[in-house]
Write a sequence for this structure.
């Protein structure tokens, strides 16, 4: 039977080989050559993962040096063939028109984190333990940046492995219009506000609270330079987080816009009253909380507030991305990657909800 199966496999007659192996397993289920032949059949029918598992199982069960050598050779062939197949698929993805456009890949919490970690490790060629650490428990995580063709290739492979993903070009994120709210002129029954467009033009806007489909809240770090004593008492200048800017984005998908407000730029003194007994002594924090409460009372949609985790993980990749306008005026001494990270976070969520 072994000779018949081998002849069928050599002739690439996989249908006959399958039939013969079924008969062989019934008559000699413990014959190690059956398992070795199954591995060859899986290899010949391009079932790389199954063939790899079969050869590894064979090596655990069999102690014959000659047969073990055949299994190791088969295992090496499978791994090389799979690598070649992956590289061909990646090259094809990169060759598609427009696939060189810069983009990014984001992963989301999987349903089965253990299974997803194994699949992610295989796709990205990393240790399963490291893959598990990279999988987010909530929110989004920026996984990698590069050409959109490559991002789509890895995104589809990760999805097949049980890892939810989303990918987008930088131009797609830039296309989302962001209006910076200067102040609310009215909040009831219909909100009206003064805002600044992406081109810097000031104007008025009226909408219904029911048009708000999603809310994004974030705390963006604000840095200051401070003096500190270094080695041998020498004074050093360090940049440390001194405060956080409160930012709130209202996603209005029907109009394809984001309405952004920030406690650092909102003109509370000219705004409609947001808290009872408002006076000139009322603090910005109290007025900002009043604005949040007003919005929460009038809207009925999801609020997403996991930016800190996303931003912390995304910082190291920000220098790899092309310039993005941030539409967040915090009067910084120098540009901060935190602002870019928030712009990516909010526009990604906007596009994801619109898909």
């Amino acid at each position: 039977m072994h000779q018949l199966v081998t002849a069928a496999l050599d002739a690439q007659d996989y249908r006959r080989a399958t039939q013969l192996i079924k008969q062989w397993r019934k008559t000699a289920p413990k014959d190690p050559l059956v398992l070795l032949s199954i591995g060859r059949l899986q290899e010949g029918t391009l079932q790389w993962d199954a063939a790899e598992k079969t050869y590894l199982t064979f090596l655990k069960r069999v102690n014959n040096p000659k047969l073990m050598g055949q299994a190791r050779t088969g295992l090496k062939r499978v791994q090389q063939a799979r690598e070649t197949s992956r590289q061909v698929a990646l090259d094809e993805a990169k060759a598609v028109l427009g696939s060189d456009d810069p983009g990014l890949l984001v992963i989301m919490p999987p349903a089965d984190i253990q299974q997803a970690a194994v699949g992610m490790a295989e796709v990205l060629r990393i240790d399963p333990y490291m893959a598990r650490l990279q999988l987010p428990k909530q929110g989004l995580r920026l996984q990698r940046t590069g050409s959109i063709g490559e991002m789509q290739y890895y995104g589809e492979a990760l999805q097949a492995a049980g890892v939810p993903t989303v990918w987008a070009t930088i131009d797609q994120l830039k296309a989302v219009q962001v209006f910076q709210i200067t102040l609310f002129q009215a909040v009831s029954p219909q909100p009206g506000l003064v805002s600044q467009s992406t081109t810097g033009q000031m104007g008025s806007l009226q909408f219904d609270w029911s048009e708000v489909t999603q809310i994004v809240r974030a705390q963006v770090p604000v840095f200051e330079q401070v003096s500190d004593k270094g080695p041998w008492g020498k004074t050093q200048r360090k940049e440390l987080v001194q405060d956080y800017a409160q930012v709130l984005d209202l996603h209005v998908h029907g109009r394809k816009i984001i309405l952004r407000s920030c406690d650092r730029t909102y003109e509370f003194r000219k705004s409609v009253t947001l808290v009872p007994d408002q006076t000139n002594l009322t603090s910005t924090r109290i007025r900002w909380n009043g604005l949040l409460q007003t919005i929460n009372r009038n809207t009925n949609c999801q609020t997403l507030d996991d930016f800190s985790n996303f931003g912390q993980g995304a910082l190291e990749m920000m220098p790899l991305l092309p310039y993005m306008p941030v539409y967040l005026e915090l009067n910084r001494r120098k540009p901060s990657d935190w602002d870019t990270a928030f712009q990516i976070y909010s526009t990604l969520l906007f596009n994801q909800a619109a898909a």
Strands lie at 102-107, 141-147, 165-169, 177-186, 192-196, 202-206, 214-229, 235-252, 257-262, 302-304. The two ends are 56 Å apart (CA to CA). The chain has three domains: 2-93, 102-170, 176-354.
